[in-house]
Design a protein that fits this description.
The complex is a heterodimer of chains A (366) and B (129). In chain A, 21% of the residues lie in helices and 34% in strands. Chain A is built from eight helices and 20 strands. Chain A is globular, with a radius of gyration of 20 Å. Chain A starts with a strand and ends in a 10-residue tail after the last strand. Chain B has one domain: RNA polymerase II/Efflux pump adaptor protein, barrel-sandwich hybrid domain (OB fold (Dihydrolipoamide Acetyltransferase, E2P), Beta Barrel), CATH 2.40.50.100. Chain B has a six-stranded antiparallel sheet. The chains are: A alpha+beta (366), B alpha+beta (129).
């Protein structure tokens, strides 16, 4: 399969982006440098192209009951124009994907899904829609998305819109906002651990909006930001990444995102396994750790205790804001408590690590 | 891209400077720019012996783990321990303070296998990496 370009591909090249293939898409891993971009998002603001993400519209009288069956969070708690993060599980509790649900009204919801899972999710959603009075529309190709993230995101956006964005709450959205003269869907969401906004627009207007936001953000120190810092930012905030902390083989309870599993909402896919794991504790769990010896933990490195393999690193990296080498690992549950010690095998050597509390980074005032 | 004339180069993007039978080795400006921000360097033990082409140090950027290969066979006489606390020097000064290892060369004839600056420029110009 040849890698696809987002509507912002030429823009990334123009801004000096170093292009890599990611999940079937050609995207910038960095522009000036991952550390610079990471710092900009933590201290000022960064602009990301997340147009590769998928969007599926669910409409119809059964939209709510359909979604309640498919995802683990309680969708009935959503008000109109509110957004919810939720895992979506298989009947055995393994994770199909993690996604955002935007409720437009009682029979219209937009799902924002991971780029690499678009086909799989689409198949899963359509197969599971039998018997429900719902209509599904894959809007992935008709939707571009920019993420403006960082403490100065609101100040920058105020220059581009008459909408009182300061009144938009975290995880709420405006279905039709005017930004730089274009009609977009605007949400106060993001996956960096910072305040920020996501701007959904038509592909034809993405490059124009990118330039308008960059222009408005220049006096604030806004930088274009690539996939590299997107990963280090979400990792410091200990937000799970599908394919790493979450997968068909890992449940949301094992991933430690219990608060997005609502057992009291009735029957849903995976409920029996998730209820059992929540009641008795899962056998494996995602632990956050800091490497106390020298080295950098990386995904797939073995986790060892007393000569025995007890787990696997799911994400590991130098954490720029903390200036430490840290990781997330799926380990036997007995090793997941803060203070526990184990080793990470790096190139054949066991390097000591200690379990620490998650998230590794929490923004001020949160 | 900075490619000093006086150095020799390997196809794996190491540079070599020979003084007597001691070869100072680092990664090229091209290699450091491809890697991005270097955040960790794993150095070999003094006295360790390596054959040509064998991985003998590791340079890690935020996203990537890259082996540094011995361009010629030899014994490690010195490793740049300042990189333990300041790995970013590999990005800032790849041909100077960012050197990685010094090797006592076992067989100087192997140096003949390395490229001069013109040949290396051609290699990276062709996108060979």
């Amino acid at each position: 399969m040849t890698a696809r370009q987002t509507p912002l591909y030429e823009t990334h090249v123009k801004y000096g982006g170093k292009i890599v293939e990611f999940g079937g898409w050609l995207l910038p891993v960095r522009y000036t440098g991952i550390l610079d971009e990471h710092k900009a998002v933590r201290e000022k603001a960064g602009l990301f192209d997340v147009s590769h993400m998928g969007e599926v519209l669910v409409t119809g009288p059964d939209a709510l009951v359909f979604l309640q069956k498919l995802v683990t969070n309680d969708v009935s708690r959503l008000a109109d124009t509110q957004v919810q993060y939720t895992p979506m599980c298989y009947p055995d509790g393994g994770t199909v994907d993690d996604l955002l649900i935007y409720k437009r009204n009682h029979d219209e919801y937009l799902l924002v899904i991971n780029a690499a899972n678009i086909e799989k999710d689409w198949r899963w959603l359509t197969e599971n829609s039998a018997g429900f009075d719902v209509e599904l529309t894959n809007l992935s190709d008709e939707t571009a998305e920019l993420a403006l993230q960082g403490p100065l995101a609101e100040a920058i956006l105020r220059n581009l819109t008459d909408t009182p964005v300061e009144q938009l709450g975290y995880y709420w959205f405006i279905p039709e906002a005017r930004v730089a003269g274009k009609t977009v869907m605007l949400s106060r969401t993001g996956y960096t651990g910072e305040d920020g906004f996501e701007i959904y627009c038509c592909p034809e207007e993405a490059a124009y909006l990118w330039e308008a936001v960059m222009e408005a953000g220049r006096p604030y120190g806004l930088m274009p930001a690539g996939l590299g810092c997107r990963d280090t930012l979400r990792f410091e905030a200990a937000l799970p990444l599908y394919g790493h902390e979450l997968s068909a083989a890992v449940t949301p309870i094992e991933a430690g995102i219990d608060k997005f599993v609502s057992l009291d909402k009735g029957e849903f896919n995976g409920r029996a396994t998730l209820a059992e794991q929540k009641a008795h504790g899962p056998k494996r769990k995602i632990a956050g750790f800091v490497l106390t010896g020298r080295g950098i933990p990386r995904a797939d490195y073995p986790v060892i205790s007393e000569g025995r393999r007890i787990g696997t690193v799911t994400t590991g990296s130098y954490a720029p804001t903390l200036d430490k080498n840290i990781g997330l690992a799926l380990v036997e549950a007995g090793y997941a408590q803060p203070g526990q010690q184990f080793d990470v095998e790096i190139r054949g050597k066991n390097v000591p690590a200690q379990v620490i509390a998650k998230p590794f980074y929490r923004r001020k005032g949160e | 891209m900075n490619i000093p004339k006086e150095l020799k180069y390997s196809k794996d993007h190491e540079w070599v400077k020979l003084e007597g039978n001691i070869a100072t080795i680092g990664i090229t400006d091209f290699a450091q720019s491809q890697l991005g921000d270097v955040v960790f360097v794993e150095l070999p033990e003094i006295g360790a012996e390596f054959s040509a082409g064998e991985g003998f140090a590791v340079v890690e950027s935020v996203k990537a783990v890259s082996d540094v290969y011995a361009p010629v066979a030899g014994t490690v006489t010195e490793a740049n321990t300042t990189l333990a606390d300041a790995p970013e020097v590999v990005n800032q000064d790849p041909y100077g303070e960012g050197w990685i290892v010094k090797l006592e060369v076992a067989d100087e004839s192997e140096l003949g296998e390395l490229m001069d600056s013109d040949a290396y420029e051609q290699l990276i110009g062709e996108g060979g990496h």
